[in-house]
Amino acid sequence: MKHIIAIILSLTALAAAAQPPARLRQKDEKKNQSTTPQGVAYRDFPTAQPMPDDAAWRRDIYLSLDLTKEDNAVLYYPTIPAGGRENLFTRLFKLMLRGQLQAYDYKLDGSEDFSEKNKVKARDILDRYHIFYETNGSKIRVNDADLPSEEVKAYFIKVSHYYDQHTASFRSKVTALCPVLKRGGDFGDSESQYPMFWIKYDDAAPQLGKLMLMGSNLNNAATISADDFFTTGAYKGDIYKTTNLQDRLLTQYCETDSAVTREQRRIEKEMTDFQDRMWGRDSVVMAKAAAQKAQADSIAATQKKPSARTARSTGRRTSAGTATGKSPSAKSSAVAQKRQRTPKPKSSPSSSSRGSYSVRRQRH
User: Which of 67, 62, 74 has the alpha carbon at shortest distance from 198?
Assistant: First the structure.
């Protein structure tokens, strides 16, 4: 009996091991498809070209990204991780808790400081913004429901626009990120914003290349990585500061909201003009070309006016010519009609009796 049982077990093991390689390969493919989104290639390094230190021209601007707007909403949802998806703040905060990402304190002037003395610990951030967490020795655990990702409704980013003389190209690159927490007051008044911390974008880029976000409201299967979102410039924000000598915000030297808007447009135009001049579209040359074109148009317009007058005068002469060029019969009929219409003066009886003679009397 023991021999029979041993033979049966050996046959079962051989049948399991004798599966065709194609079937085993199909099982592995199904397993990979269940864990990895289709059509997505994860990257362990960023694909953006690094910014050279010796750039010939560079302009650093600070943007405020409003996540309530549709262009930036891809960074906001889902506020609570579900179905293997999470938003940008959840990924950044978890990386910071694990020690894989270094955070730097936010200063009052709004500038980033990536020095050693400005580093901030994850526990300090949790205590500062009253985020509930649990400790197990030196480890810190925060539940997904306790993360304030729903209150992070904006981001401050630093973007460097530069000209790379090595490749003769004009590029832009995000260099820093700062999540902004928005909370209402105790009495239900308007929300106040609290910038939490700065992080280097290059430090987070390898992980952001693996964070897949929904890229469209119409096509839910379309995805885009967070790194591609920032690298391609798909975000839309408002300028609130530029790197300047006084290190001032726009609101510090613009007194009204309309003045801030005008200053933002002026800065955007400066960068556009520089890029145009870089490719040979100089403003002076363009103004000269526009003046020459306007002059040519005015000359062409003045040349068209005499021809129109000539046509009108020609038409009048032609009509007059046609009137004089009538046949003799038509002329006689017209004269006859005119004579019939003209009344004849009545003659007196004396003049009729005397005939055609007239008497002229002289006074003595």
Answer: 62
- Average of pLDDT values for 227-234? 94
Are residue 220 and residue 273 in the same domain, yes or no? no
* pLDDT for res 332: 53
Dig out the tokens for 143 from the structure: 């539940």
Cβ(119)–Cβ(141) below 8 Å: no
* 149 and 214 in a common domain: yes
**From CA 276, how far away is CA 284, in angstroms rounded?**
12
DSSP-assigned letter for residue 156: E
Answer whether residue 234 is part of any domain: yes
Write out the DSSP string of 193-206: EEE-EEEEHHHHHH
pTM of structure: 0.66
Shared domain check, 231 and 110? yes
Whether the CB-CB separation of 206 and 44 falls below 8 Å is answered with yes
The string of DSSP codes covering 162-210 is: EEETTTTEEEEEEEEEEEEEEE--TTS---EEEE-EEEEHHHHHHHHTT
Q: Judge whether residue 323 has pLDDT over 60.
A: no
* Torsion of the alpha carbons at 26, 30, 31 and 36, rounded to the nearest 10: 130
pLDDT tens digits along 5-29: 667 766 665 555 555 666 666 666 6
